[in-house]
Design goal:
The complex is a heterodimer of chains A (210) and B (289). Chain A is mostly helical and 210 residues long. Chain A has one domain: Transmembrane di-heme cytochromes, Chain C (Fumarate Reductase Cytochrome B subunit). Chain A is 66% helix and 3% strand. Chain A is built from 9 helices and 2 strands, in the order E-H-H-H-H-H-H-H-E-H-H. Chain A has a two-stranded antiparallel ribbon. In chain A, helix 5 packs antiparallel against helix 6. In chain B, strands 9-2-11-10 form a 4-stranded mixed sheet. In chain B, strands 1-5-6 form a 3-stranded antiparallel sheet, with no helix packed on it. The chains are: A mainly alpha (210), B alpha+beta (289).
Chain lengths: 210, 289
């Protein structure tokens, strides 16, 4: 898919729209959820019209995020199998993170860090959904035993924390890797960028365009 | 819910001191189960003073009516027929409701600032205007007391008539009890009074009579005189050693503060990485090499 300008299509308009929809909903879920996470964050409930509104909206926002995320995940699933090249990349991860010059293994569309992130989010969002149902007042929580609700409320908090940390890493990695964000905003990346970060994917794309 | 108070011991989800310039004596309600005749006058008085009318339910075939606590029933009598000693039938009637724990699990679990307050006199009170309806207090309570109203999504429970006590009156249930089974006074006085009752019960053959003031929740401001204090579960499942669930303690006391710092550390790590290592840039002429 190399064109004359030397740009490669990395994300289709559908994936981009889906990604940014998930991103917006994630931010809403995070801000409303943090309000209940610790008193230090309770002020965030003001963004949603106060405590009761934050409480009312949060679970619905969560369900929308679940649906949108799994739509995105179903499209990205195929690119997230771990390969031998990924394991080689992992061995060099520290050097890569410290900007040391490295011989980049022939990794495909995503590196193993991204693949771990994908798995983490899949698992955490599933946990957030299931535990969220168990603690959802007043609709579902009364149907479950108090012991289960207590467990779910702890698991929900921990899964929320892991998800937020994973997204902080995701956002920073995208910002740090110059040229990556345009892949998700404009849809294209430069050939040099693709070759530098994802040699295997670059070769595949070059072959396809020939 | 009660008018503004200046003797607040603690507020939910609040990390600064609460208004505490005024000081008050610790109070307690003492429910002497050996004197209770199950007339439910306390239930009626509770409804009347607090001006709440629960929906009329249906007969469950037992005396318990209503069958359970609800947003509109802050106290219920629980009747149990037991054979405690040598097949002797006993009818144990327990007035159930908030125990006003010294270490309140509801307040610890609540994420909304000031939705639950503990007065210095020991009363644990819900301030419904600050309640978000999340139901976390329900997970915190070791006695299964708070009830979320399906209509307004606020949680309700016994206030120990904090509005009456603030003006020097006793709780409505204590005022109305025809046998004097419900007493109200300072916690110290109530313990002394209970000791007399317990000595009396022991004399009458109840060797295990005792005071229910469970230490697992720091003691309570509603205490029972039990004929069988060794077996509180005989009284419709009164908890033998009530404690805030370790899950709630872990969640609120350890996990959430630690994870809050964790989020800050994650952001800070990113910034520090960027300013020390610098961005990961691609040379644009790399393809030509």
């Amino acid at each position: 898919m190399n064109n004359k300008s030397g740009l490669i299509l990395r994300h289709t308009p559908g994936v981009r729209a889906n990604h940014w929809f998930v991103a917006i909903v994630f931010i809403l879920a995070t801000l409303s959820g943090l309000a209940f996470f610790h008193p230090a964050f309770f002020f965030l409930s003001s963004l949603f019209g106060g405590g009761p509104w934050a409480k009312i909206l949060h679970p619905f926002v969560g369900v929308i995020m679940l649906v949108a995320f799994f739509m995105l995940a179903s499209k990205e699933w195929q690119y997230n199998r771990v390969t031998d090249a990924d394991h080689q990349w992992q061995k060099k991860a520290m050097d890569i993170m410290l900007n040391h010059p490295v011989e980049m293994p022939d990794i495909g569309r995503y590196n193993i860090g991204q693949k771990y992130l994908f798995r983490t989010l899949l698992l955490m969002i599933a946990i957030l959904f299931l535990t969220g149902i168990v603690i959802w007042q007043p609709y579902f929580a009364p149907m479950f035993s108090i012991g289960l609700v207590r467990l779910a409320v702890v698991a929900h908090g921990i899964a929320g924390f892991v998800t937020i940390v994973a997204i902080i890493v995701h956002i920073y990695a995208a910002y740090w890797t110059r040229g990556a964000i345009r892949g998700m905003t404009r849809g294209t990346v430069t050939a040099a960028w693709a070759k530098h970060h994802y040699p295997g994917w670059y070769k595949e794309m070059s072959k396809r365009s020939e | 819910m009660v008018q503004q108070s200046l003797n607040i011991e603690r507020r939910s989800a609040t990390t600064t001191p609460s208004p505490g310039v005024r000081h008050s004596v610790e109070v307690a309600k003492l429910i002497d189960i050996s004197k209770c005749i199950g007339c439910k006058a306390c239930q009626a008085a509770c409804m009347e003073w607090n001006d709440i009318r629960d929906e009329v339910g249906t007969c469950q075939g037992v005396y318990d009516n209503p069958a359970d606590l609800s947003a509109g029933s802050w106290t219920v009598m629980r009747f149990s027929e037991v054979e405690a000693d040598n097949g002797k039938l006993e009818w144990l009637i327990r007035k159930d409701g908030c125990m006003h724990c010294a270490d309140p699990g509801c307040l610890k679990a609540c994420p909304a600032p000031g939705a639950i307050v503990q007065h210095e006199n020991g009363i644990v009170d819900f301030q419904q205007e600050n309640c978000t309806g999340c139901g976390y207090c329900i997970t915190g309570c070791p006695f299964n007391i708070p009830r979320l109203s399906p209509k307004d999504h606020k949680v309700y429970k016994c206030t120990l008539c904090s509005d009456r006590i603030a003006t020097g009156l006793e709780p409505a249930c204590a005022k109305t009890c025809p046998t004097g089974a419900i007493m109200f006074g300072s916690k110290k006085e109530m313990i002394v009074h209970a000791e007399g009752r317990i000595a009396d019960l022991k004399e009458r053959g109840y060797q295990n009579a005792g005071l229910y003031d469970p230490k697992g929740v720091g003691g309570t401001h509603v205490m029972y005189v039990l004929q069988h204090a060794d077996k509180p579960e005989l009284y419709s499942g009164l908890a033998k050693d009530p404690q805030i669930s370790p899950l709630v303690i872990f969640w609120k006391g350890i996990a959430k503060p630690l994870m809050s710092y964790g989020l800050g550390v994650a952001v800070l790590t990113g910034i520090m990485h960027y300013v020390t290592v610098g961005p990961n840039e691609t040379e644009e002429d790399e393809t030509e090499k």
